[in-house]
From TrEMBL:
It comes from the Bacteria. Pathway: Bacterial outer membrane biogenesis; LPS O-antigen biosynthesis. InterPro entries: Epimerase_deHydtase (IPR001509), NAD(P)-bd_dom_sf (IPR036291). The lineage of its organism: Bacteria, Pseudomonadati, Pseudomonadota, Betaproteobacteria, Burkholderiales. Residues 3-228 form the NAD-dependent epimerase/dehydratase domain. This is NAD-dependent epimerase. Gene3D superfamilies: NAD(P)-binding Rossmann-like Domain. Belongs to the NAD(P)-dependent epimerase/dehydratase family.
Length: 297
């Protein structure tokens, strides 16, 4: 198979390229530039938000599989950004052109923010969808429209509700990299919701799930999948583990424990559907945290 990847320079995208490389897949990148370390890949150069007609670019790529990760994801801004609306439009035009130029199988990254978070433990088949914020609403709209569009074109589509991928390369302002900076004595302590539970997944396993679902499209695998560990991780335990890995005292952070208004006590996905396709995680939570600490300068 030949895979066309969008969002390749992003946090998840770089890990996806690594998994595709390990599989020996033929890969082309659709975007403005190739990410560092992958300069050997084919580049189909485009600004996805500025491109009006994707068909010539997709004909040039000649890919049978599309792995669409590109979206606005700047930490602290993406949740309410009007750019979410533009990404709905770009996603649909991209998928339409993919089908029109002979594409067969697509995977697109959604979010756990498409769900009703009040349920805590979220299942594809019976948890209601109640999108959170403009980001979640835009992803939900893109999924609904993309599902209908791909069905009409005979393109199989797998959609991933992504839950808390973490690991090397994560944005510095996010919780885990920020905590590592605290425990290394380079930043002041801050409070986190230590009573909460989250379904955290090491990013290499999340990337492998994306690639696995895309490849399984030829075997009839499609629809919605939770990309998650399936296991609730205590944020307090995460804080203590990071502190131990950094030979630091967790108490300055634990003493500032706080929760944001509306922050759900538990947000964990059920991954039964994903496991049924043959995907398996390769890292435990502890191993993933150790890898993140080791990789952070």
């Amino acid at each position: 198979m030949k895979v066309l990847v969008t969002g390749a320079s992003g946090y998840l995208g770089r890990h996806v390229l690594q998994r595709l490389r390990l599989r020996g897949a033929e890969v082309a990148v659709l975007g403005r530039r190739l990410p560092e370390g992958f300069e050997d890949l084919e580049l189909v150069q485009a600004d996805l938000l500025a491109t009006q007609d994707f068909a010539p670019l997709l004909k040039e790529a000649g890919a049978s599989h599309l792995l669409h990760l590109a979206w606005y994801a700047e930490y602290g801004k993406y949740w309410a950004s009007p750019l979410n609306l533009r990404w709905v439009d770009a996603t649909l035009r991209l998928l339409q052109a993919f089908g029109e130029t002979g594409g067969k199988h697509a995977f697109a990254a959604g979010t756990c923010a498409e769900y009703d978070w009040s349920y805590g433990y979220l299942r594809e088949e019976n948890t209601p969808l109640l999108p959170q914020g403009l980001y979640g609403t835009a992803k939900d709209a893109a999924r609904r429209l993309a599902t209908a569009l791909c069905a009409a074109q005979g393109v199989s589509l797998a959609w991933g509700h992504v839950f808390y991928p973490f690991g090397p390369g994560e944005a510095p302002k996010r919780m885990l990299p920020s905590l590592i900076e605290v425990f290394r004595g380079r930043a002041p302590a801050f409070g986190v919701n230590t009573s909460a539970f989250r379904g955290m997944l090491p990013v290499p396993d999340a990337a492998e799930a994306f690639v696995h679902l895309l490849a399984e499209g030829s075997n009839g695998v499609s629809g919605r999948f939770n990309i998650c560990s399936g296991q609730p991780a205590s944020i307090e335990d995460v804080v203590r583990t990071l502190a131990r890995l950094c030979d630091a005292d967790p108490n300055p952070v634990l003493a500032l424990a706080s929760a944001r208004a509306g922050d759900p006590p538990m947000l964990v996905g059920d991954n039964t559907r994903l496991l049924a396709t043959g995907w398996r995680p390769t890292q435990t939570l502890a191993q993933g945290l150790a890898a993140q600490v080791a990789a952070q300068p």
